[in-house]
Write a structure and sequence with these properties.
The structure holds two protein chains of two kinds. Chain A is mainly alpha-helical. Chain A is built from eleven helices and three strands. Helices cover about 40% and strands about 5% of the residues of chain A. In chain A, strands 1-2-3 form a three-stranded parallel beta sheet. The N and C termini of chain A lie far apart (about 70 Å). Chain B is α+β, with helices and mostly antiparallel strands. Chain B has two domains: about 50 residues, no CATH class; about 170 residues, 2-Layer Sandwich (Alpha-Beta Plaits). Classes of the chains: A mainly alpha, B alpha+beta. The interface between A and B is medium-sized, with 35 and 31 residues.
Chain lengths: ~325, ~280
Amino acid sequence: MAQLDLRELHSTEFPVPDEMQGNVAITSLSKLYNWSRRSSMWPMLFGLACCAIEMIATAASRYDLSRFGMEVMRASPRQSDLMIVSGTVTKKMVVPIVRLYNQMPEPKYVLAMGACASGGGPFKEGYNVVSGIDQYLPVDVYVPGCPPTPQALLYGLIALQKKIDGQSLANMDDVPWYGVGPAEPTPVPILGPDIIDPRQMDLIRRQAELAAQGKPYGLREIPESALKRQTAQIAPKTKPQIAAASGTVEADDPEKAARLAKREAALARKKAESGETAAASVVADAPAPATGGDKKAFDKAAMLEKIRAKKAK
Amino acid sequence: MFGQGIVKGLWVTFKHFFNTYADDIKYAGRKYLRQENFEVRQGLRSQGAFTVQYPDEKLAVPERFRFTPFLVTEDTDPARVGEDWCTSCGICAKVCPPQCIWIVRGTDPNTGRPVPQPEAFFIDIDICMNCGFCAEFCPFDAIKMDHNYEMASYDRTMHHIHDKDRLSKPLSYWKSIAPTTALEEANARGGWEHPDVLKAMKKAGKTADKPTKDNMWNVLSAPANQALPAPTAPASPAEAKPVPPAAPAAAAPAPSAEGGKAKFDKQAMLAKIREKKAK
């Protein structure tokens, strides 16, 4: 039963008198912190395949995850600590899974439940299945079984709790999320020759040809629409815009303008350099994303008008 | 009338809900005190819904429950304790749907002939889908499905690729976890012994005891050996097979010598392999 027992928390360096046993605990910050953390592991609410049924059974009243403080299955990655990868991870699904993992706040844990999530299971050589989520995410606990029974899953969760108990605040290897600076996000797998995005069949074919010739073929590029969106977010300034911006700055502060000009020159140099190195890659024959400006901007009102006119006919 | 089905369905839920409390009153605090009470409450005749307090109390698994496979080793014949039942025929590796079994067959380093004993045996339990085909197909009853499901670990490659040492479990373990199934299998084989031993006994003109529940736990006081002549060397039935039962087995330091041609001697072969490996 999940009852608060202070004796459980007590670390035995200092003796507590007998009459105070259970009322007072002298403990380290690490232990207190780990105890509170492991007693409120909130798993993320998502299931992938048949293992999810067993996960649901584990969460239901018969096995009752709430005895471990895990009953609060959060539907948002922002509020969850534990990702139970319950089932077959297809190549299409691995992208959102890694993205969800990146959206979880630290400290976060991953439990690979069942044969498919741990090693691909019966589909390990399938064209559409990732053979083990551990190729993309750092997995903390592997639970074998096909699917694991609720008790096997509970055993895995208890193993995870034990792992958390072993972590120390003093050791930065244990708790890297308290390090300086933001944590590096896990790279989201890019759909490529292996993980096929059918919209990019042409490019994949070209890449395959290059690979067959032994040339570097690189990863698949981001789809054009996504690239446009990204460029709009990060660098919306095409050349005339930059010129205009720098013009306005010049009027304000000549020193700032000089710095900006220097930076631009450096950026241009860098671009040229990277362009040279990447010349061999496919990027060369992809349409330059920045030149998308010569296309007419999307006009929603006009489009709607057009659609309406078509419908009226 | 609309909604009748919903009411009917909810009535079942409500009955369970109500019975949970009714049962609590009936048991009045004895709920978790004794193992029998726990089993009654979790059994088929239970009325309410009760939580299994997992790490403290565990639900008994049914006898035919399958988790991961294990290899059966001999433990009834004191002369051959720890020897594999497996003859490394490789049928399990062939039928395994997810292909998680890896066998290296033993070969005689001198002649290059195969030895009926696996040199290495690996099962990746993170790939295993617990289907039990390996146990189903094994002609020697040498691979069986285990009941132990508590196998979660932090490292897949270190702890979840089981080697022969990890997989090997004595036959008595199988008898203890699945007594009925083990008895059925023994009846089908014709005795509690390994099929090869039974074959040798038949050749020697002896019949094995009919397997029953009573003689299940009998450790052979070497009846398999007694059935065969020349029990001097580490008596293996295969070794003694060529010697006819009527043959004068008095001077039997080299049972193979009298046959003229040396017949296959498993024990000696294994010893040789072990020696060579140790070097």
